């Protein structure tokens, strides 16, 4: 091959190699970017989103006798319906916590639409990392194992007399409910935090040291 053609062929080879490297880098960036975007917008849920039907929400609030002096926390609040109903129908203040930012955006909009944005607050957060010690009422619609995992935190954080209502799931044999109500194929459980619960929380904290 003449030196001129040899040089041209070498240049073509180099350009093709550089182009391939560029394409690989671009594909890598797009893929990792996509994976990052997906993990950033889809948090790991301990419980899937299933909203409590409105008649059951009303019954949960009845069971806890929610009134205007209450501070209600819904842990895993979904679209905010329990906190919003407590604010709108009973005059209570409330906070909803959900790990999914999409749910919190919906809840904030629903509170605005219902005219209770001043009483109903919503925060993105993991319920296991949250401070709900100001609550006088806690509502839950989680799962049996998540309720049990949460139990020591409820005992530790909540004041004596705070009411806890759970839709469909109990807290295990270590914490039998004070009341159980059945409505339309659903079961509601009710507890009140007692001085014994606080002692158990202290004992558990000692054990884990
Ligand atoms: C069954 S839904 C209940 C929604 C609402 N409380 C209701 O009764 O209509 C459970 C909610 O918990 C949220 N969730 C799941 N894991 C969570 C966690 N670790 N911390 C906070 N929220 C969580 C989900 O995003 C979902 O909105």
Order of helical and strand elements: HHEHEHEEHEEEH
Shape: globular
Approximately how much beta-strand content do the residues carry?
15-25%
Oligomer: single chain
Features:
6 helices; 209 residues; 7-stranded mixed sheet; binds S-adenosylmethionine
List the helices and strands and how they pair.
Layout: H1 3-41, H2 54-63, E1 71-75, H3 81-90, E2 93-98, H4 101-113, E3 120-124, E4 137-140, H5 144-157, E5 163-167, E6 179-183, E7 186-192, H6 195-207
Helix pairs in contact: 2-3, 5-6
Q: Could you describe the 3D structure shown?
A:
- With 209 residues, the chain is of the alpha/beta class.
- 47% of the residues lie in helices and 18% in strands.
- A seven-stranded mixed beta sheet has the order 3-2-1-4-5-7-6, covered by helices on one side.
- Helix 2 packs across helix 3 and helix 5 crosses helix 6 (195-207).
- The radius of gyration is 26 Å and the shape is globular.
